[in-house]
């Protein structure tokens, strides 16, 4: 029997996982080998790559770096992170005192965000105290949750998409991160667990970096040859340059059971698209088989999608985005009597 002490510490972020009974949320994955993150302690991970995905969003790859004490024990281990789960990243509170150099990759974003901060808040660094997500932790660190988009269990590697926030404490710290640096992660925190063919269709609404948990779930279902669920992704971004994982989504489009529609909220063109919902400037930027609409997602779009998705009971809906976005989708679903809804 599992005792309370054996359970990993609460992530303290107020997420579904913390609010609900977390005993049912931490599930061992089907493997005879143990996962590196079992036990709920922070573990060292080497940052092996950083790349830019959009102006403010970057993709970081991490690989487990066994410590000297761990190395023999960790030899036969794998890294299990179930799709849609998040991890906790921590960094030292006093990092500003160590003069860490900024990574060149972040310079263009940094220049613009500093300007924004100057206008809005009186300058970067205006926020003195870093909020703590992981309340169980000593005051030497601050921590933030992030959701892996891709996991390589055997290589003990995972990737996260991180949208940098102006004046955000972790966002500031991450700009000093270089490939070769070590950071500490713990987890995993699982809120939603998909079971193979649990429903006929899965309809996902994602906004911006809210794509992370949804992408990892969709990718896992497509990887599973025995899962025949029909998958629909409705993805909302500001503009075409802000579409995250665009190439990966295009590849997913080759599967018979996957389709995606992207809605852009910021209209920058001057053609008639502004009034007609169709835009000729956009068509030149759209790749083969992409469905991109030059307008915000509206209630009518959600209603049409649900009517096409068949019986309400056979549909599972996932939502991940800002509060305002989630509310818009949720209100429509409630009106249409859709009950199987999970919000990240
Ligand atoms: C379960 C879960 C999973 C998540 N997964 C991801 C993920 O995969 N990818 C991702 O990018 N994010 C994810 N997040 C969000 C992430 O954890 C952080 O909240 C985010 O990166 C911001 O952290 P920060 O330390 O940079 O900002 P914080 O320091 O926490 O600041 C929060 C906000 O306050 C604003 N702020 C800070 N200082 C000031 C100031 N002086 N004046 C005005 N405004 C200010 C910042 O701009 C920011 O918008 C997730 C969150 C949760 C709960």
Structure commentary:
With 344 residues, the protein is an alpha/beta fold. Helix content is 23%, strand content 24%. It has 10 helices and 13 strands. A 7-stranded antiparallel β-sheet has the order 4-3-7-1-2-6-5. It has a 6-stranded parallel β-sheet with strand order 11-10-9-8-12-13, sandwiched between helices. The protein binds flavin-adenine dinucleotide (FAD). InterPro entries: CBR-like (IPR001834), Cbr1-like_FAD-bd_dom (IPR008333), FAD-bd_FR_type (IPR017927), FNR_nucleotide-bd (IPR039261), OxRdtase_FAD/NAD-bd (IPR001433), Riboflavin_synthase-like_b-brl (IPR017938). Keywords: FAD, Flavoprotein, Oxidoreductase. This is FAD-binding FR-type domain-containing protein. Pfam families: FAD_binding_6, NAD_binding_1.
So how many helices? 10
Major sheet attributes: 7 strands, antiparallel
Low-confidence stretches: 1-8, 16-29
The proportion of residues forming helix, as a percent range, comes to 10-25%
Output the radius of gyration: 21 Å
Q: What is the number of beta strands?
A: 13
Domain FAD-binding FR-type: 40-195
Protein name: FAD-binding FR-type domain-containing protein
Pfam family, one: FAD_binding_6
Family: Belongs to the flavoprotein pyridine nucleotide cytochrome reductase family.
């Amino acid at each position: 029997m599992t005792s309370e002490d054996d359970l990993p510490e609460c992530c303290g972020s107020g997420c579904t996982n913390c609010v609900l009974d977390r005993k049912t949320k931490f599930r061992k994955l089907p493997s005879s080998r143990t996962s590196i993150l079992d036990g709920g302690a922070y573990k060292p991970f080497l940052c092996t790559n950083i790349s830019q995905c959009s102006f403010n969003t970057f993709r970081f790859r991490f690989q487990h770096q066994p410590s000297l004490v761990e190395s023999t024990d960790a030899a036969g281990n794998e890294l299990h992170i179930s799709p849609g789960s998040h991890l906790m990243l921590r960094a030292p509170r006093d990092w500003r005192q160590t003069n860490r150099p900024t990574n060149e990759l972040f310079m263009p974003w940094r220049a613009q965000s500093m300007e924004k901060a100057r206008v809005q808040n009186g300058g970067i660094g205006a926020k003195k105290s870093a909020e703590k997500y992981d309340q169980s932790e000593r005051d030497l660190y601050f921590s933030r949750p992030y959701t892996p988009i891709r996991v390589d269990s055997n290589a003990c590697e995972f990737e996260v998409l991180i949208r940098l926030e102006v004046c955000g404490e972790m966002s500031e710290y991450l700009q000093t991160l270089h490939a070769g640096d070590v950071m500490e992660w713990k987890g995993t925190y699982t809120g939603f667990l998909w079971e193979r063919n649990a429903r006929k269709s899965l309809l996902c609404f994602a906004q911006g970096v809210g794509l992370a948990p949804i992408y990892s779930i969709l990718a896992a279902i497509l990887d599973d040859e025995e899962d025949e669920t029909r998958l629909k992704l409705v993805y909302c971004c500001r503009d075409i340059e802000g579409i995250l994982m665009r190439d990966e989504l295009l590849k997913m489009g080759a599967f018979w059971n996957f389709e995606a529609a992207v809605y852009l909220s910021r209209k920058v063109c001057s053609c008639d698209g502004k009034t007609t919902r169709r835009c000729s400037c956009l068509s030149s930027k759209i790749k083969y088989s992409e469905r991109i609409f030059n307008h915000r997602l509206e209630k009518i779009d959600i209603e049409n999608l649900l009517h096409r998705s068949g019986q309400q009971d056979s549909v599972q809906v996932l939502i991940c985005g800002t509060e305002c976005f989630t509310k818009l989708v949720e209100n429509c679903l409630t009106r249409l009597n859709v009950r199987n809804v999970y919000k990240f």
